[in-house]
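Justification of computing resources. Each target in the renewal requires a structure prediction run like the one illustrated here; the chain below, 287 residues long, is used simply to show the kind of job we budget for.
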Amino acid sequence: MLLHIFCCLLITSIVGILVWYFMVFKTEDQGPASCGDCFCIVGEGEVCPSQTPNSNYTAQLIDIYVQRQTIANPYDLKCDPFSNANCGTSPAQDESLLGLGDTAVCAIHVVDPAAECQESSYNLKTYASREEAEAAGGFVTHLGHCGVCSTLQDLAVYLQNPSLTTEGQFCSAKNTISIEGGAACYRNLGMTEACAKVWAEAEFHTFKDCFTECFLEDITQDEPNNGPFPECALNDCLQCDADKSAGTLAKVAGRTMRRSGLLSPVARQCNEFAFIEHQRCPQTTPL
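Resulting structure tokens:
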């Protein structure tokens, strides 16, 4: 009996410490990253892109994405892709298009071009290339196959929360208690249900598999996201997350910050970055 009480108190203490840890050390907004004078990590023999990502989207655009434009063919997720290798979206993603990586693109097509922009609905479709998508009358919303986070509602959350991709930035405290707690936190940010679910599962997976790198090795969380110029290497925590969770998250979610052309507090390779100017009411052709 005493042992049972001791174990319960120990678990409660550990959870309490972790919640305190995330609330104290993991909430600072670090702003957009840079590597030297460039917003991204320049590869050997390359130069910083002359094109600068837009980081000043208007509140009106975000409001339309969140409240008015609705998706006609959303992806859903009923399983955990981090614990089940056979877990997939519904409808299923095309394996041949997934194999193209970021050469493929996810595009939106407005259902009724005559409808008011504020009240329109849209379809998502994955194409083998940007050129193919644009030739078909689609507007590219991110690189890679469409997934559960490809909606404009989820894009609005990314736009409002540029620190989303920094490990533990928003909902980690809830995730130390349960995946559902983390998912509820992401839904409160405005994410769609399926997108919130996969983000919470990804974060829990990183918490479990990268505990040493993310928490024990840097308990005060004073290590920068990137190392010194010119390599600007990811810190051990972010590298572990990249190795253990990021690939599955990108596959199932579809939309990521850099695939959407959005800056974050983590500098990434320039060749991984998309240049997309998100529009309030893009002109598209119905499917």
